[in-house]
Model the fold of this input.
Amino acid sequence: MGGNPGLNSDARLYFPATERNREPIAAGLEPLLPAQGLVLEIASGSGEHLCFFQQRFARSHPGLRWQGSDPDASHRASLASWRQQLGLTAMAPPLNLDASHSAWPELTEAPALVLCINMIHIAPWAACQGLLAQTARLLAPGAALVLYGPFLEGAVATSDSNRAFDASLRQRDQRWGIRSLGAVEQEARAQGLLLDGRWPMPAHNLLVCFRRS
Ligand SMILES: C[S@@+](CC[C@H](N)C(=O)[O-])C[C@H]1O[C@@H](n2cnc3c(N)ncnc32)[C@H](O)[C@@H]1O
Done:
C-alpha cells in the first residue's frame, strides 16, 4: 500500500473511430502542419489521435510540440495514460479546456496550429463560437485552425448516414447537431479566420482549414 493509487493506473480509453479515421486525418493534416511550434488539440477525447500524430510526425516534423486538452476528466486521464504508456515525453500534460469558456487556460506558448476533431457537432453551438473566438485570439496571422468532422453544405447533398446521425445527435441533446459549414465560415470570418480549404474525407466527413487573417 502507499503511494498515489492513480499514478500507475491505466486510464486509457479506446475510441474505435480513431483507428479508422486517424490515418486519413494525418494524411490531410500533413501539408498543413507548420515546421515547428505547438500543436494545440481541443477536445482530445481518449487522446489516441494526438499520440498517433505525435508518433507519426516525429521524424518529419521534429520541431513540433503537442498539447492536448478536454473538459472531461476521464478523457484527460486517458490521454495522460496513453502519453505515459507510449513514453511521449515531448507532449505536455493535457489541459482542462472547455472551448465555450471565455477564459482558456494559460498556454506555455502561442499555438502554431489548433486542431479540433469531431467536437463542434457534439457540443452546443457556444463551443464552436468559443473555439473560433479564442483560436483567433491565439493564432498568429497565417496560422491554421483545422477542423474535422461532418458538416452540412448547401451545394452538397447530405448523405443518409449524416442525416440519421444529425437526428440522433439532436435527440440526445437538442443543442447538438451537425453544423452548416456556411454558418461556421460566417462565424469564423467575423473573428478574423478565413476559410482556406475543405477536403472530403471518408464516411462523409470533411477536413476544413481556416487561417488567421
Ligand atoms: C466525439 S468526442 C471526440 C473526441 C476526439 N477528438 C476523437 O475524435 O476521438 C467529443 C469530445 O468533445 C469534448 N467536448 C465536449 N464539449 C466540449 C467543449 N465545450 N469544449 C471542448 N471539448 C468539448 C468531449 O469531452 C469529447 O472528448
